[in-house]
Write a structure and sequence with these properties.
By secondary structure, this protein is of the alpha+beta class. Helix content is about 15%, strand content about 35%. The protein has a domain of about 120 residues: YVTN repeat-like/Quinoprotein amine dehydrogenase (Methylamine Dehydrogenase, Chain H). It contains five helices and 28 strands. Strands 3-2-1-28 form a four-stranded antiparallel β-sheet, with no helix packed on it.
Amino acid sequence: MTRRRDERVRAAMHDVPAPGEGQAEERSWAVVREAFDEREPVRQPLGLRARAALAGLVAAAVAVVALTPAGAEVREWIADAIEAGEEDARPGLGSLPAPGAILTESGDGVWIIRDDGSRRRLGDYDLATWSANGRYVGVTDGRELLAVTTTGEQRWAIPASSRIESLDWSSDDGFRVAYVAGGKLRIAAGDGSEDVAFRDDIGSTAIAWQPESDPDIAVHRLAFVDRRGRVILADTDSGDVLWRSAQVQAEVESLQWSGNGDRLLVAGNGFGHVLDAEGNPALKAVAAGASAATLAPDGATVAVVRPSRKGGAEFALVPAELGPREAVLYPNPPRATGAFGAPTFSPDGEWILLPWPEADQWLFIRVADRRIIPVDISRQLDPTGAASFPSVAGWCC
């Protein structure tokens, strides 16, 4: 018998129901539904016999769910009955808890949400970044870099040779836009008048403009990663390399400066450490084991998402300098089986936006007292609910 014929026979046998399979599916549904309908909190502890009987019932139900073809449907039904997220979440974002505006990216395009809760869709773009003072937004559309106003009006566009993978608009005078396309780092003028190749030997899409220490002196310094895994700070006007860090022994996924440009967070999946303004290590292992990390505007702390000792995930503030103790702001919430997204600080540093994709919620957490404002977010941007969960591209100005 040939191999192809064997496969046809096995496929045909797979489609033939086993004896009593339909009755088993009906019994499994009946058992699970009955157990769910009868769930009630009890005031007195269960006796030994009752606990044993309940354990047997649960074990039998689990076995039936696991072994019958209806198992997948039963598991989906149970998952729907036990949803993740904060129960008292607001159905919409009436206003932001801090001044500024949030820039988001989702399958439905790029949106701006202002502090009064008003929102505007800029267009069907892929990536987005704020310009200096939030006057414009840099966006990408496949192989095209564009600048648009906060109302969505296009100001200029630059074609790229490959799909744009990351971008960052300088936060000082706004005269430079850096982007990565096809593994190459390019620098464009803030008015779209110039676009030049800067480096073709980069080892990561992570890029970050250093904020200027003196607003009266225009300096355009960009941090990026070379192919040897070293973080480099370079003057993009002269091309001079100001410093190179030691080699990072893992893939760098993000570079983030403090507001005054004296600290740089180098982070990736499961690691994070802080460099000073000269590229020297200021603090290592600041985000060990973290799935996401964000440097506070003042550079004093790092917000990290990491595994909880009790299972699931937790959100904490870790000091970026020796001395202060860390603080867990959101400890192992019930029903938190999925990971949180990357946290984002408000411009004043007093609030943190923590995305919770599994719950379709944004959690606004106040640093001072850990107050939480949960918001159901996807329908805020698309009432049909068809849009994907929005990621935060920045909270500006």
